[in-house]
Amino acid sequence: MATGKYVSDLEEGDRLGPVDYTLSAFVIREYAHTVEMHQPCFQDGDAITMPPTLVHLDKLRLYRHACPMGTGPDARIHYEYDCEVFMPIPAGTELSVSGFVNRRYQKKGRTYVELTIDLKRRSDGVLMIRYRDTVILAFQRAEAA
C-alpha cells in the first residue's frame, strides 16, 4: 500500500479516505466562475448546486490527505474521466469522499492509474456522485532523457 507517500506511488488496491467536509456556496461559486459556468444554479442565491466537474477537487482533497508527501517524482497527466451524478448536491450538504485505486497498469511504455471516487451524503451514506479518473504518470524522467 502506497498511501502515506507520494501520489505517483499509489498502487492497485489502495484506499483513500474517507474525508468529510461541508460543501460551501463560496467554493461552488468560485469554481463555477473559474470554469465559466455562469448559470444561476451555480452562481445565485442560497439554492446553488455543485457542478459535476467540481468532483475533481475531491480527488485533490483525497490526494492531499492520503499522500502527504505530495505529487512525487512523476507528474500526472489527466487522461480520462467519467462522472455519474445521481442527484443534485446543494450548498451546505455534509459530504464524505473516498477513493479506491482500481488499476495500475502499463501501456506503450506509460504507467496508468485508474481511481474510483465515491461522494456520499454523510447523514445517510447515499451515493451522490461516482467518479472514475485515469491519469498517466510521466514515463521518462529528465535524467533519463
Concise summary:
This protein has helices spanning 25-34, 40-43, 55-66, and strands at residues 15-22, 76-85, 94-107, 110-121, 127-137.
Please tag this protein with its features.
Thiol Ester Dehydrase, Chain A, 18% helix, alpha+beta, five-stranded antiparallel sheet, 3 helices
Please write the CATH class name: Alpha Beta
Helix-strand category: alpha+beta
CA radius of gyration: 16 Å
CATH superfamily: Hotdog Thioesterase
Low-confidence stretches: none
Characterize the structure shown.
This protein starts with 14 loop residues before the first strand and ends in an 8-residue tail after the last strand. It has three helices and five strands. It has a single domain, classed as Roll (Thiol Ester Dehydrase, Chain A), CATH 3.10.129. It has a five-stranded antiparallel β-sheet. With 145 residues, it is of the alpha+beta class. The model has no long low-confidence stretch (mean pLDDT 87). The chain is globular.
Topology of helices and strands:
Blueprint: E1 15-22, H1 25-34, H2 40-43, H3 55-66, E2 76-85, E3 94-107, E4 110-121, E5 127-137
Antiparallel strand pairs: 1-3, 2-5, 3-4, 4-5
